[in-house]
What we know:
six-stranded antiparallel beta sheet, alpha+beta
Amino acid sequence: MCGIAGIATRDGKLPEARLLDILQSALAHRGPDGNGRYAAEGLGLVQTRLAIIDLSTGDQPFFGPGETVLVANGEIYNYLELRNEFPGANFATQSDCELPLFTYRNEGADFAGPLRGMYAVALADTAKNTLQLSRDAFGIKPLYYAETPLGLVFASEPEAILKTGAVSRAMRQGTARELLQLQFTTGRESIYQGIERVLPGETLSVQGGRIVGRRFKAALPEGKPRAISEDDALKELDAVLMDSVAVHQRSDVPYGLFLSGGIDSSAVLACMARLNEKPVVAFTAGFPGTAGRDEREHARKVAKARNAEYIEVPVTADDFWTHLPAIANAMDDPSADYATIPTYLLAREARKSLKVVLCGEGGDEMFGGYGRYRSVMRPVWMGGRAMRGKGFLDGLGVLRDAGKWREGYAAAESRTRGHDWNRLQAAQALDCADWLPNDLLTKLDRCLMAHGVEGRTPFLDPVVADFAFRLPDNLKIHGGLGKHLLRRWVEQQIPEADPFSPKRGFTVPVTEWIAPRAAALAPLVAANEGIRQICHPDLVEKLFRNLAGTDDKRAGAGSWQLLFFALWHRIHIEGVSHLGDVFETLQRK
């Protein structure tokens, strides 16, 4: 896991060393174990390294056949298998990330096709004066770019691009409105004017500092559900999960697990316990002294059942007020997901003893776990409705213009109709298009990389997706519960997880923490420049002042969205320091 960045100039000149220094420094937290650089006429590449595989010879850049050079962020899990496809090849290292240089030799710009893993790759062919920028099909690893008069500037995080001065700190107000309503943003355009995302599964071809081609690698298979019995599906699922977890454990450094109270991480633990002789190190967050759902008791029971080394991480109101600015600073591509709080603190604790953690992200999307999927499948007269038809601030009256926030999401909905999928598959694909990469995976990447920890997601694997996405609907949703097949498997493998208890959802008690101090927050949030551009400040202030006296869940959720956005705007648009607590950050001149 690393940070990568670079510049492809339009005039063919050597990029300024000063700009490459800025990019490298801005990504140092992603790679505390070293750095590397390549510079030549028309191109500069930088990398900061978090050493996971091939600790001794895996420093980047890598150089390959035919005058090719590469920097990469991520893990190619099938690198051992791919090596066997190149007999006689002169590999310079044992690194997994050297392999794209050889698949490029065979496949050209389609070099990402054979890769199984999470990655953002920059591969230059200096003989042809081309650069390929590629991102894994699920969008687990981030990659951003800006087309500027200087040329194309790219980086693992938009903040690195901003620090070069190639793009100004200007916000797309429509995207900011989308953030407040959805808690994430959609599509290619980031919230910053001039900075775009390389889309999940996309490979950009760059020549002369300009994009000249785009290719896509799909994360999900085509075709409606296939016919398979439950017993046969259980046998296949066992093989698929064990295979995925096994390759996701490939590492030359210690690894562990984020264990929640849900069945997804319990399933990963069951696999890890079968694969490892030593106890799995499992980290669980909890919220002592609050009314929020605390998963520690359940997680403790599951960990004990598989002899895991169990570590609890309490998350308190003091943590909320102290660390929220640092979390907002890490979330430069913003996701206002309150799960960033425990994820950030879990990563801080995990870094004390290891560099890699596996987690259960993607289980709901692959196996049909969300209640919204069941709603999508019902007819309107039985309560069926489209996903995310209402925004977080709907009904609160604080937005100046609430009319067009859903356009990006609607465009993604339209794209799912162009496939041979049924209604449930289309809903799953819609979540995989934006919610997954731009909320859950951005949260995971930024919160872990802020502490130099790599996060791995065994459910978001092509082998798992090819199996799970085409399961019959009744093996996904059955008896009013989602993830039926996965629950059956967990029931067999780790019954202590109580897999057929209703999905209760993960909650963080942000409203409970905000409410006692909401009156003091009210004028600070309302006065924020970003809030004033999008919202009616007097109504924002009123919302916060009334929070302590209401049990309105929508008001609480809306207040959290507004507070997070105000902090994010202060740090990333206004440029104030995140050092200090919430009140210091909001008040800082």
